[in-house]
Amino acid sequence: MKPDRRRTHTRIVRLTHWVAAAAMLCMIGSGWQIYNASPILPFTFPPWATLGGWLAGGIAWHFAAMWVLMAAGLVYLAHGFASGHFRRDIRPQGVRRTAQDFALALRLRLHHRAGAYNAVQRLFYTGVLVVATLAVLSGLAIWKPVQLGWLSWLLGGYDVARRIHFAMMALIVAFLIVHLTLVAIVPSTLVGMITGGRRVPDSDRTQPRIQP
Q1: Ranges under pLDDT 50 in the chain
Q2: Is the terminal CB of the chain with fewer CB neighbours within 10 Å at N or C?
């Protein structure tokens, strides 16, 4: 069966994806370094998993990566709205469709089509955008608790904002674990994120969205 190359991601989506991924890894490692200086839970992260070497180093890495991540995020958001990517590919589908796809995913029977997002992917990607937004807002609140006192107050105060920030980080790490696991299961999706397209059989165009 002769394969063809199907476009999956635009250049802007691919570029912002990889820039944001590198920045996010730096923010997680440096964030764990900052956390270790004043833990809010009865554990700390091992030194090999942190970035910065000490508190000041962790803060420097965290803020440097933050600006890179925010720049990539703003470009991605502008492109997503202007191109219709969010409306066409990311906008969540109905509860019934999401529940159906989720049940099929748990049984490993959910079909994946190149360039298409199923209801589970739409839910996860929308959710991580919301989580990332809360992570940025809570991070700003604990970075400038006086200048941005209204934001700190809105989030319940400095201590609550710090816990929200930690919780959002934990959710982002969980998302990355699930994301990388799915890439390992369907490695051809990685090709699409690198080159913008991947080879698929012609019959895939006529396959049902969900495997029987």
Answers
A1: 1-4, 201-212
A2: C
Give all strands (DSSP E) within the chain, no chain letters.
3-7, 197-201
Position 204 scores a pLDDT of: 45
Check: CB of residue 13 under 8 Å from CB of residue 82: no
Give the separation between CA 46 and CA 84, rounded to whole angstroms.
42
pTM of the entire predicted model: 0.78
Question: Three-state SS for 127?
Answer: helix
Which residue type occupies 132? A
Cβ(122)–Cβ(112) under 8 Å? no
pLDDT at position 25, please? 94
C-alpha–C-alpha distance, residues 47 and 8, integer Å: 38
CA 150, distance to chain mean position in Å, is: 27
Cα–Cα distance for residue pair 91/117, rounded to 1 Å: 10
CB 51 within 8 A of CB 29: yes
Quote the pLDDT of residue 26: 95
